[in-house]
Design brief:
By secondary structure, the chain is mostly helical. The protein has one helix and no strands.
Length: 94
């Protein structure tokens, strides 16, 4: 017996079953994709945690350098001021 669209009851049932199978497969593929994406994001998160720890160490070292910079600059300025008279004396000796 044919229905309104010219399909038999068997073919309608087959279409329904195939549609359900297709939806189940789609959901399964999406679930697998989400699981793989979650694993990748967790790996990236772990690496970013390591990078953050390393940057904290670098920041601590840079803080120590920053504290001594003012003293170093003062000593270099004193050397800079002392060099021109020394150069003049060296030229007069030659």
């Amino acid at each position: 017996m044919l229905d309104f669209w010219g399909c038999s009851e068997v073919s309608v049932a087959l279409l329904v079953v195939l549609t359900v199978v297709e939806i189940v497969l789609l959901v399964a593929v999406l679930a697998i994709y989400l699981i793989l994406l979650t694993r990748r994001l967790q790996a990236v998160s772990a690496v970013l945690g390591q990078v953050s720890t390393g940057l904290g160490s670098v920041q601590g070292g840079v803080g120590l350098v920053g504290a001594g910079t003012a003293l170093l600059n003062r000593k270099l300025e004193a050397i800079e001021q002392a060099l021109p008279p020394i150069a003049v004396k060296a030229e007069s000796l030659s």
